């Protein structure tokens, strides 16, 4: 009678039979750009992460490239906000100028986050009609934002607003302007999560009233997420995303099962802040927890991992701790 046995082997053999693989090429690092000069301000709730002006981003980009991280996602913090978030699609908006600077100076892949919450005076992700977001009006603006980022040099756009029909609206406008080959990574299953708190503080994007539950997803639902994914794929999304990652790994797995395009998972600010806080108090091993969280996302089915730990994970891959 035969018994299953664990491999009594050295690290080389263990690595050979690993079922889940992680590559540096799969990592994306989020960056916060603030309008102004000589700004490099640590985010209180996210130690090690910064709001920065364009003139102070060089050291961060160089560290990422040195570590082997080849992609960044940009978020903007403008000085001026209004009801229609006009700085989000301005030719010389903070994200557009950051894209130009980075693409002119560094061989790194740049993704523009496409949304309005950082740019609107009310903090919601679209154009308001009374106290509600007007979906059909908003998607016209979302497409304008995407086009402005691509014209500035973005390699990919990532709409995070969760409006219905925005992927097809973006695709049509990009194609009409000669950008048929620019991919769209859609935040397809973006939940109305409590894990976004530190990000909203970092990006000054908390809603002035109400919440975002009318357009972001109920945390109880999974079939809704699959419908959103189906719709985005049908509209032309090249990559679909689940956000947050850690509490929604079951959604990542289900999405992976129903689609044949890449799946991204976003390890959000609240996940990062919890690990940092617990590690600071000596309750956990930060490096090991960080690695386990990444492995769990890829094991669940993610092809791409958006994380504030991108640089550190790349170094752990070099050390053979994951990979």
TrEMBL record:
Its EC number is 4.2.1.24. 5-aminolevulinate 1 binds at residues 200, 212. GO terms for cellular component: cytosol. It comes from the Bacteria. Keywords: Heme biosynthesis, Lyase, Magnesium, Metal-binding, Porphyrin biosynthesis, Zinc. 5-aminolevulinate 2 binds at residues 269, 308. It catalyses: 2 5-aminolevulinate = porphobilinogen + 2 H2O + H(+). Pfam families: ALAD (PF00490). Mg(2+) binds at residue 228. CDD domains: ALAD_PBGS. GO terms for molecular function: porphobilinogen synthase activity; zinc ion binding. Its cofactor is Zn(2+). Catalyzes an early step in the biosynthesis of tetrapyrroles. Binds two molecules of 5-aminolevulinate per subunit, each at a distinct site, and catalyzes their condensation to form porphobilinogen. Homooctamer. Belongs to the ALAD family. This is Delta-aminolevulinic acid dehydratase. The gene is hemB.
